[in-house]
Amino acid sequence: MLDVCFSCLAKKPQSDKPQIDQDEEEEEEEDWLVKHLKESGCGARVPSMDADFWKDAQFLLPMLENDPLLMIFGEEESGDEPEGAASERSSLSDHDSDEDDEDEIII
């Protein structure tokens, strides 16, 4: 787990007590990060543009090929989609409930 806040890069204070098992250690680390984010408000702040990870190219590339989240951006602008594809997509939601029509009870 992370021992560093992703926003302010504060490091988790080291504990002197020995860890009994891996699960307990992970839970303690998560508790530390949650507590830190709530107290400092780091979760609501955007990291500064001077942060090193903005400059590292490996973090600026998509990690998954055809990542659905990244594929959404520019979809309306692209025009790569055939004309009927958008209407087909919207009509799919209309046909999804057709199977359930047989089970309906009309009184």
Could you describe the 3D structure shown?
With 107 residues, this protein is mainly alpha-helical. The chain has one domain (22-96). It contains 5 helices and no strands. The model is unreliable at 90-94 (pLDDT under 50).
Overview features:
107 residues, mainly alpha, 5 helices
Rg measurement, Å: 24 Å
Instruction: Report the major sheet.
Output: none
The level of helicity is 40-55%
Number of domains: 1
Write down the secondary-structure element order: HHHHH
Assembly category: single chain
How many DSSP-defined strands? 0
Question: Overall pLDDT, averaged?
Answer: 68
Distance linking N and C termini: 57 Å
The structural class is mainly alpha
Shape: extended
Q: Please mark out the parts with pLDDT under 50 across 5 or more consecutive residues, or reply none.
A: 90-94
Number of helices in the DSSP assignment: 5
Task: Please state roughly what percent of the residues sit in beta strands, choosing from under 5%, 5-15%, 15-25%, 25-35%, 35-45% or over 45%.
Answer: under 5%
Describe this structure in a few short sentences:
By secondary structure, the chain is mainly α. Helices cover 42% and strands 0% of the residues. It has helices at 22-40, 52-55, 68-72, 75-78, 83-95.
Question: How would you summarize the topology of this molecule?
Answer:
Blueprint: H1 22-40, H2 52-55, H3 68-72, H4 75-78, H5 83-95
